[in-house]
Write a structure and sequence with these properties.
Layout lengths: L2 H21 L5 H8 L3 H14 L6 H9 L3 H8 L5 H9 L11
Length: 104
Amino acid sequence: MDDNTRTEVEAAAFRGLIEHLRRRTDAQNIDLMNLAGFCRNCLAKWFRAAAAERGEEMSYEAAREAVYGMPYATWKEKYQTEATAEQKQRFEDTKPLHAVIGGG
């Protein structure tokens, strides 16, 4: 596979992941962090960092909207639930495994 095709395939896969996460509003960010070490906010930070690496200026809020499909405040109001004590503890316990995000 040549580099251009690989980039197109990677971009399509990313768009598929974003669409999946937009449909799965029941999947809370803390659950994603606890299980996989990244969440929607991490994706937004990676998106923003990738834009910056290419000389494109993007605010964190604009990157979040690109991932969430709506302003973050709207998503949070509509879909985010309060984390349980157990979720919060697991988050702390798994911090060493959380995503490393550059440029964010």
